[in-house]
Amino acid sequence: MMRRLLQPFWVLLAAIFLIEAWLWDHLEPIVERIVGLIPLRAFKQWLAARVDALSPAMTLIVFAVPVIPLFPLKLVGLWLLAHEYWVSAAVVIVLGKFVGVGVTAFIFDVTRSKLLQMAWFSKIYEFVMAMRAKAAALVDPIKLRIREILRGDGWSSRTLRMIQRFRKSVQAAR
User: Fold this and answer.
1) Is the distance from CB of 41 to CB of 166 less than 8 angstroms?
2) pTM exceeding the 0.90 threshold for the entire prediction
3) Which residues contact 53 (CB under 8 A, 6 or more apart)?
4) Is 114 exposed, middle or buried (0-12, 13-18, 19+ CB in 10 A)?
5) 88 falls in which pLDDT band (50, 70, 90)?
6) 26 near 101, Cβ under 8 Å?
7) What is the pLDDT of residues 49-74, one digit of tens each?
8) Dihedrals φ, ψ of 156, to 5°?
9) 58, 124 contact by CB (below 8 A)
């Protein structure tokens, strides 16, 4: 019983996790293009050379520090929400999310080899990758079903009966 009640929560959590992973996967190439347009490629090479000289623990600091300047942007988004500037708040929060994931992907690409030298970080990385695969396995059948329904060839008799019952209840309520 409890498992059935928690299943929507786990599916929602898996979907959120996969959205984060999707953003990571799709923003990394965009950041690479931006790096190609402005002299960030030279910065990336310079940073990689400096990271090679650091210990893994110091590399963790290099990985964590770039996210700190984005915190005030999130506070601005929260302030905008509190003062009911909904569209501005959504833009600021989404922009902060994209910039945060993009910068994190860029820095992680540079620091990955050093970070994975730490046993605890390597275990966490493997756990996150396993959870990503598990989340994908959990959400893939739902995504497939939604695609079938949107194409029109996935309306089962059960779904049609449920829609019919809903329509009758709405009509009866009038």
Assistant:
1) no
2) no
3) none
4) buried
5) very high
6) no
7) 888 888 888 888 888 888 788 888 88
8) -80, 165
9) no
Q: Are 62 and 111 in contact (CB under 8 A)?
A: yes
Residue 125 in contact with residue 116, Cβ under 8 Å?
A: yes
Dihedral angle computed from the Cα positions of residues 129, 132, 137 and 143, in that order, rounded to the nearest 10 degrees: -150
Tracing tokens 């965009």 back to the chain, one arrives at 30
The ranges assigned to domains in the chain are 2-173
What's the number of CA atoms in the CB half-sphere (13 Å) around residue 161?
A: 3
Q: What is the DSSP letter of 153?
A: S
- Residue among 116, 96, 107 at smallest CA distance from 40: 107
> Concatenated DSSP letters for 31-73?
HHHHHHHTTHHHHHHHHHHHHHHS-HHHHHHHHHGGGGGGHHH
